[in-house]
Amino acid sequence: MTALLADAEADGALLARRTKVTRLTQYNDSHWGVHIEGAGEPIVFAEHIVIASGHGAQPLAKATQGMPASSIPPQHFARGHYFAYHGRHPFTRLIYPVPVPGGLGTHLTLDLAGHARFGPDVEWIDGVDYRFGPDREQAFATAARRIWPGLDPSRLRPDYCGIRPKLSAAGESTADFSICGKSEHGLKGVVALYGMESPGLTASLAIADRVAHEFGIAN
Ligand SMILES: Cc1cc2nc3c(=O)[nH]c(=O)nc-3n(C[C@H](O)[C@H](O)[C@H](O)COP(=O)(O)OP(=O)(O)OC[C@H]3O[C@@H](n4cnc5c(N)ncnc54)[C@H](O)[C@@H]3O)c2cc1C
């Protein structure tokens, strides 16, 4: 990926990494101005804008000139924790239970080194907060024992957590992620991706095709 980005820069692309986009303004009939933190004027002008900023999608859409508020979906957050299993285990493939409301259910994943990890659970929270929730060991031991009755719970250790950008709130029926183009918001050259939770990564190539189609540049 780094080599690809270096090639893109060598070919004249301007890449802004670790830079917060603060605003998108209509520059002329065919281009958008991209404003970043700390700069008064737009630093990039682009014909096509994809708002693919995860939890930052709704805030950036709100800071997009002419974006109707009614086209921006509400934002909710569900934290998912993972526990790692420190020790030998008998697994060679991933194991999924029946899904639970808000998530896939605490499942068993294996990393590239073959280490086992259980998660993610579902904890509805009010905003983006990556602190690992306390007192989750017992619930994880119970969920993990459904997959592996012989598991030693003392070998489970808090590992990491992620936050799903949800479009539906706790208790509501689950909303799919949303790809909003001109027919939804009326703005030429902008596609906004909202609620890109799982399986957004798995579906990323199909989502990219759909975005290209929105711009009329599909293969
Ligand atoms: C616990 C958990 C488990 C998951 N498991 C799976 C799975 O098993 N399979 C699967 O397919 N998917 C899974 N997902 C979903 C997957 O992680 C997402 O679909 C994917 O990361 C979405 O990619 P994205 O690029 O749209 O957004 P993100 O990965 O969220 O990236 C958005 C980026 O934009 C940046 N950003 C935000 N605002 C701004 C701004 N104003 N200016 C500049 N940059 C900004 C953010 O810092 C971030 O780097 C899981 C998600 C979670 C939370």
Walkthrough of the structure:
By secondary structure, the protein is an alpha+beta fold. It folds into 2 domains: 2-73 and 175-214, FAD/NAD(P)-binding domain (3-Layer(bba) Sandwich), CATH 3.50.50; 76-166, D-Amino Acid Oxidase, Chain A, domain 2 (2-Layer Sandwich), CATH 3.30.9. It is built from 5 helices and 11 strands. The protein has helices spanning 2-10, 57-62, 137-147, 182-185, 204-214, and strands spanning 21-26, 32-36, 44-46, 49-51, 76-85, 107-110, 116-119, 123-125, 156-166, 178-180, 190-194. Strands 5, 6, 7, 8 and 9 form a 5-stranded antiparallel beta sheet that branches. A 3-stranded antiparallel beta sheet has the order 1-2-3, with no helix packed on it. Strand 6 and strand 7 form a beta hairpin. The longest helix has 11 residues, at 137-147. The chain is elongated. 22% of the residues are buried. Residues 20-21, 52-54, 56, 60, 80, 120, 162-164, 193, 196-202 line the site of flavin-adenine dinucleotide (FAD). The site of flavin-adenine dinucleotide has 20 residues, from strand 9. InterPro entries: FAD-dep_OxRdtase (IPR006076), FAD/NAD-bd_sf (IPR036188). Pfam families: DAO. This is FAD dependent oxidoreductase. Residues 2-213 form the FAD dependent oxidoreductase domain. One of its GO terms (molecular function) is (S)-2-hydroxyglutarate dehydrogenase activity.
